[in-house]
């Protein structure tokens, strides 16, 4: 093994995906995700069940990640783990596991901010992917967050806009629930939307500050709209699922793009990246591609496997922090709420 070879094991357990990945000098050798199906029955993530499932999954998932990467744990340079933000019980499983493994192997332990990882996932080396140049704007859109971040350097990030209430992923999932779709509903809305007319129905866009977001009103308007229509036609949802989803997705995507345009105008930065689960959405991906052609922005769209929660992004931040010797203290603890900033 060359001494310049860096092998990082990343561990992610912030919500309902147990994930482990190995990265070698920026290239992903393995990326294993165990998605917890149990939450589907409950229409949302049940924290207690999530942490229990993490406990069951973590050993086999880490084992599989090392096996697929074809390396022995003794070759690892460091172990990176999601410290937060996320569900406390879930975070604790990954944190304690990462700690014990790093202590056992006597290698550095590196704590990672999950939202920073969604942004720095763009630095993973992959075919057809070009890493962003600093400074760039990152819009992080997930089940727990909706932010616009000015990224000046790997560890220098400033949140310049964010949601005042629900996250955009929640807006997708809660609207889907109203339509009778199982959790998580975002990907299903996307699927139906592709067959529907985006102008069939009109939903209001909440008016807040130019870089702020608000989504709680949207789900209420979807609820009122559906209730009113069902009163007249009990099969309204079934007969109009594609058009409802297309109209909803159109409203959300144009709202997100409007905010990005405001951010570009305000900062003068035209290099734009998206990250987080909702960046898997076909509508936002298409809109961003169009902005590259029509507005001359330089846009960065993550590969599908690095959009939703994964450990490759955690290992990527681990590698960047390892190079700067930014290690965690031995008494580091999980943190449910964490801000993005200089770390
Ligand atoms: O980043 P992520 O996996 O977990 C969090 O950190 O929250 O994001 C999950 C969110 C869920 O709300 C899910 O419905 C949404 O991402 N999502 C989508 C799509 N794929 C995942 N929303 C809309 N369209 C999609 N294709
Ligand atoms: Zn996430």
| Helix fraction bin | 40-55%
Number of helices: 9
Oligomeric state: single chain
The Cα radius of gyration reads 20 Å
Please state the overall shape, judged from the principal axes of the Cα atoms: globular
Unique bound compounds: 5'-O-[(R)-(carboxyoxy)(hydroxy)phosphoryl]adenosine, zinc ion
Give the structure's gist in a few sentences.
This protein is α/β, with parallel strands linked by helices. The protein folds into two domains: 3-122 and 309-323, 2-Layer Sandwich (Nucleotidyltransferase, domain 5); 131-301, ATPase, nucleotide binding domain (Nucleotidyltransferase, domain 5), CATH 3.30.420. The chain is 41% helix and 19% strand.
Structure report:
This protein is α/β, with parallel strands linked by helices. The chain has 2 domains: 3-122 and 309-323, Nucleotidyltransferase, domain 5 (2-Layer Sandwich); 131-301, Nucleotidyltransferase, domain 5. The chain is 41% helix and 19% strand. It contains 9 helices and 10 strands. The protein has helices at residues 47-69, 88-105, 114-120, 168-178, 186-193, 216-232, 236-267, 282-294, 312-323; strands spanning 7-12, 17-24, 27-35, 78-84, 109-113, 136-141, 146-153, 156-162, 271-275, 298-300. The strands form 2 sheets. A 5-stranded mixed sheet has the order 3-2-1-4-5, with helices on both faces. The protein has a 5-stranded mixed sheet with strand order 8-7-6-9-10, sandwiched between helices. Strand 2 (17-24) and strand 3 (27-35) form a beta hairpin. Helix 7 (236-267) packs parallel to helix 8 (282-294). The longest helix is centred in the last third of the chain and has 32 residues, at 236-267. The model has no long low-confidence stretch (mean pLDDT 95). The structure holds 5'-O-[(R)-(carboxyoxy)(hydroxy)phosphoryl]adenosine and zinc ion. Zinc ion binds next to helix 3.
């Amino acid at each position: 093994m060359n001494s310049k070879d860096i092998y990082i094991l990343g561990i992610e357990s912030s919500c309902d995906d147990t994930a482990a990945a190995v990265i070698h000098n920026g290239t992903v050798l393995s990326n294993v995700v165990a998605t917890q199906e149990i939450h589907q029955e409950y229409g949302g993530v049940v924290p207690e069940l999530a942490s229990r499932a993490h406990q069951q999954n973590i050993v086999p998932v880490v084992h599989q990640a090392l096996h697929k990467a074809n390396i022995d744990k003794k070759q690892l340079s460091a172990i990176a783990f999601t410290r937060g933000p996320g569900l406390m019980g879930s975070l604790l499983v990954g944190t304690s596991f990462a700690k014990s493994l790093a202590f056992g192997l006597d290698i550095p332990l590196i704590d990672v901010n999950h939202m920073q990882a969604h942004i720095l996932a763009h630095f993973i080396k992959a075919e057809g992917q070009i890493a962003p140049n600093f400074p760039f704007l990152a819009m992080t859109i997930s089940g727990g967050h909706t932010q616009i971040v000015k990224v000046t350097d790997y560890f220098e990030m400033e949140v310049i806009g964010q949601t005042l209430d629900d996250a955009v992923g929640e807006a997708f999932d809660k609207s889907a629930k109203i339509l009778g779709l199982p959790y998580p509903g975002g990907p299903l809305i996307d699927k139906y939307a592709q067959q529907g007319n985006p102008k069939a129905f009109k939903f209001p866009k909440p008016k807040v500050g130019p870089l702020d977001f608000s989504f709680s009103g949207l789900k209420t308007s979807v609820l009122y709209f559906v209730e009113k229509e069902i009163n007249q036609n009990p099969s309204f949802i079934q007969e109009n699922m594609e058009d409802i989803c297309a109209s909803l997705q159109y409203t959300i995507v144009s709202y997100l793009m409007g905010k990005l345009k405001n951010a570009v105008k305000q900062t003068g930065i035209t290099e734009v990246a998206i990250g987080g689960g909702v960046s898997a959405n076909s509508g936002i991906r298409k809109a961003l591609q169009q902005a590259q052609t029509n507005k001359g922005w330089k846009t960065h769209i993550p590969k599908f496997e690095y959009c939703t929660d994964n450990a490759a992004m955690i290992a990527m931040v681990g590698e960047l922090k390892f190079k700067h010797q930014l290690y965690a203290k031995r008494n580091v603890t999980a943190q449910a709420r964490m801000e993005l900033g200089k770390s």
